[in-house]
Amino acid sequence: MRPPHRHTPRRRTAYRRAPREIDGLPRRVQAEIDRLERTRNYLYSGSVTDAVLRWQEFARSPARTLWDLRDADLEFYCCGDPFAARELLAFVEQALSRPAARALRAVLAEADARWEW
């Protein structure tokens, strides 16, 4: 006779977002950014990718040409502050190795040229 079947409870895993990659960034650089996000207390998993996407989206937006937003007292509650995102990326560039920082700057070059950062 077979022993009664016991259901073992499934281990619950913490919610984790699927890792996203930055277009045009080599995997080696993405791995260095991931390592940096794990070791720095001012970064969280995916914060650099979020900042890159926020800055690129803002730079491509036609609304950016309406005002000089650097001097305005605007709050970006809906989608995050693109200028704070760019400042975060400047800190990340300094923390990365030279080749990785160069690759990140190459990805950000188009958005920076549109905004004239």
TrEMBL record:
Can you say what this protein is called?
Uncharacterized protein
Protein's organism: Streptomyces polyasparticus
